[in-house]
Fold:
Amino acid sequence: SFLVGRDPKAYIPVRFTTGMALAMGGKDSDYYSRFLSLAGAAFLTFRRQENVRMLANSIMCLKECNLPDISAYNTPEEALSGLFSRLKLDLESDDEALSYFE
Structure:
């Protein structure tokens, strides 16, 4: 639901708490660095054109299923707009996207 634009806490771009960082050993730990690396790689993977196309096609196919996160709260077009906005497709390079993500 978050990916298609329904965000119960719109003011928080990512739900990552201090407790989560502490569970990884703190922000200076190797585990936290590894987490950032993996999360950044996942973000870049979602931003790839072929994956964006697949996600967009999936959303359009699901519009007939009456899923609450797509049909009740926004139109498929609004869901796509939310997807594109969250993936920051306006940023041209992976470096820009990673800087935004971090």
Notes: The chain is about 60% helix and 0% strand. The chain has one domain: 18-101. The mean pLDDT is 83.
